[in-house]
Amino acid sequence: MHSINDLKAAIENLDAEGQRRLCEWLEKEERQKNDFRDCFVIMPFSKTRDYRDEKYWDHFFLNFLKPALAECRYRARRSEATEDNFVRTIMDDLACTDVVLAVLTDDKPNVWYELGVRHSQRRGTIMIRQEGQELPSDLKNQSTAFYPESLDVATFGPKLRKHLKSASREAKDSPVASFLSAGLVYCINLAIAAKREALEKITMALKQRRSTESILADLKKLDATWAEKRQLTIVDVKLEKVILHRNFPNPNDPTTGWIDVISGNQSLYPAMKIDGAGLRLASIERIHGRVTAVAYESHPETGWLVVAEAHVQRGQL
């Protein structure tokens, strides 16, 4: 068995033709992966009942939920313990993933907490529960998919497909959704999705050993396709320089951008740089009559701060 270092050395020793073929293969793998949409799953991990322990929930995810979602062309993911901030990672997934599925069986407290966080942020959430278990009174009128105790994928599949279709349309899927402005929610979702798309493009390009100039050229093309709805900015934090933007006041000084009228005409950039990742709502100077959602995240390998903006007219709030 070869080590990671052996594989890295082999890749570095490839000739030009070998590098080209490797890039083609990576692009093909990425296209196949992108044929599936992401679905982040919040669910129990540890024992909930005598016969439902950690092994049961692993089996539930790997052999029931994952295949059921795959049949609907969704790729199931759940949180994994990492050396990084575990809760921060979960919060990011809850905010950024287009579709979230919550397993409410056995009323695990962490699932209810994460479901509440998701409902307060955006739409696109599916709730599932084992047949025979009643829902709390405040959710009885909300659409929930009940699965059989036998964990039969064929039986559950049609129900799941129906709920996924509704979630993809961002229908009102919780009591909270009725109070969330459709225009503002749409604006936030656009910014979050744009940020993630740009980050994925950067990560893929680095795997292909593309040059900085080539990566920025691709990001510029991506930004151009968004027209007026969204906008992408890349800041090289180490150089304190804006290296990609349509019309930045002073590219050599990032603090001249993202001037928020609401916060006393202060730039959002210093706080974004310190945070490293997040989402802010602002009324940007020179963009009159609109609220701007600003989604941002640092890319560790490049040292870039990736910032995606989306706007909504105040009349649509």
Structural features, described:
The structure is a single chain. This protein has helices at residues 4-12, 16-34, 54-71, 86-96, 109-121, 153-168, 182-207, 212-225, 269-275, and strands at residues 37-42, 74-78, 99-103, 125-130, 144-147, 230-236, 241-244, 259-260, 266-267, 277-282, 290-299, 304-313. With 317 residues, it is an alpha/beta fold. The chain has two domains: 37-179, Rossmann fold; 182-316, PAS domain (Beta-Lactamase, 2-Layer Sandwich). The strands form three sheets. It has a five-stranded parallel sheet with strand order 2-1-3-4-5, with helices on both faces. Strand 6 (230-236) and strand 7 form a beta hairpin. Helix 3 packs across helix 6, helix 4 packs across helix 5 (109-121) and helix 7 runs antiparallel to helix 8 (212-225). The relative contact order is 0.09.
